[in-house]
Design goal:
It contains 8 helices and 2 strands. The chain has helices spanning 11-46, 49-52, 55-84, 93-124, 129-132, 137-153, 157-161, 176-241; strands at residues 162-165, 170-173. It has a two-stranded antiparallel ribbon with strand order 1-2.
Length: 242
Amino acid sequence: MNNISTTTINPDVARLNAARIGVQYIGQPLLFAIGMIGCILNIAIFLRRSMRQNSCAIYFHASSWANLFCLTWGVLASMLATFTNNNPATYNIGYCKIRFYMISFSQMSSRACVVLACLDRLLLCSRSPRKRLFCRASVAIKVVLVTIFFCACLPIYILVTYEPQLLIRQCLPMSQSVRTFEIVNLWLLGFGAPTLLMSILSSLTLWRLKQNAKRIGRQKVSSSYSRILEICIQISIKTMRA
């Protein structure tokens, strides 16, 4: 009698594999299509002449391009690797380094530009004319260029430390210390700092808008009282002359 060996697949593992396959074959194309449409529409809007003179629109324009690069190097590359069953990042060292460098660079640039847009709106609400000078298109272009330069310098370590891991078929840094640094960097600079800065700057902008609205309201009331008083004085003078 032949001994037939059978292997039992854990139902949880099977469900996870099914979910992963569903995300790869359905979620990625959907995410890429929606993201590309959004980025292209944003870029088309921000390329209008009126928008090119708006400092805040310039920051969002730069952020849209960064998101476009992130979708291309991140989602599109992963999608092609899934459908062709061939991921060059697992064996091509040059592609491995460049792909993850571009993903990190574009993500940093996108978040930085959104933070700058929040700062721009906050300074625009300032009473100080010197602070409002920051909210000019020429200044915004220079700030975007400097920001892109710094965001391009920060992930340079990826070009040095990342290599294809043939055994696990992934592109990862060779050193464990670099992996730890990336985890801290992801939570600190990737999520924590941008979210905190955007929340603080947006809250301050709303607070300043309310303060400006109250100040303008008081000025209007004061102007109305002055006008009424002026009319009353004129009537009194005419009455006395009569």
